[in-house]
Design brief:
Length: 241
């Protein structure tokens, strides 16, 4: 009996070492291919989950979510292309508080009527403007660059530090209808805060559309960053207060 048991144990041990383990009391359920199949399945699962995460990230940055490059219905289709590009009206004529306040300001109807009481005074397209002025009721504009409530942004400090309107808002002088050109997402903001030398311009050029530096930005930028005392704050409390 002992000899038979020893022989069975020795045979089983040798079979296991050779990869052909045999247990007469327990049949083998999974073949060798099950190991390969399990590894392939696990790799496929990881790739599938990774793909879903990548897809979710890409979707979160898409214009469908950020509303970038999307025209928004307004009470009157105001054209920056015409007023800024053709007529050369300065940004500050309408956005009067951009240099002194966190909010750039929306012009009252009276600002529009300063010109349009004389120009195109009977044009049908301007009837909402005339009605607003006549009835003393404001036009209800829809904000295009609409940041979340938990984000603090101050126009005046950016203007003071030499950040041009064009940097964030794009070439508004070429926009027949106003749209949001950039994503306005946090990584977009942080790119400028971390590398202000790439975007800063002379204060005299802040409101210039189509600005081109007189010298390489790699030379001008660092000099202006030092001159204007730009810190490039990236702490959470800078924008989330």
């Amino acid at each position: 009996m002992v000899a038979q048991a020893r022989a069975r144990f020795t045979a089983a041990f040798r079979a296991r070492r050779s990869g052909n383990a045999f247990n007469p009391s327990m049949p083998q359920i999974f073949g060798r291919s099950a190991n390969t199949l399990s590894k392939v399945s696990l790799a496929g699962l990881l790739l599938f989950v990774g793909g879903l995460i990548a897809l979710a990230m890409a979707f979160g940055r898409s214009s469908y979510v950020t509303r970038a490059n999307e025209y928004i219905e307004q009470p009157i289709q105001f054209s920056h292309l015409h007023h800024v590009g053709d007529d050369g009206i300065d940004c500050r004529y309408c956005h009067t508080s951009v240099e002194t306040s966190s909010f750039a300001g929306i012009p009252p109807t009276k600002t529009c009527m300063n010109c349009h009481s004389q120009l195109w005074g009977n044009a049908p397209i301007l009837e909402p403007v005339r009605a607003s002025f006549r009835d003393d009721t404001p036009l209800r504009w829809t904000r295009v660059h609409d940041l979340p409530d938990f984000v603090y942004f101050n126009h005046s400090i950016h203007v003071k530090k030499g950040m041009g309107c064009e940097t964030c808002h794009g070439r508004v002088d070429q926009m027949p209808l106003m749209l949001q050109q950039s994503s306005l997402q946090m990584d977009w903001c942080l790119n400028c805060h971390r590398n202000p030398e790439q975007f800063v311009r002379p204060r005299s050029e802040v409101f210039t559309m189509g600005y081109r530096p007189a010298e390489p930005q790699s030379v001008l930028g660092p000099r202006l960053v030092e001159e204007y005392g730009i810190k490039g704050n990236t702490s959470c409390s800078t924008c989330h207060r």
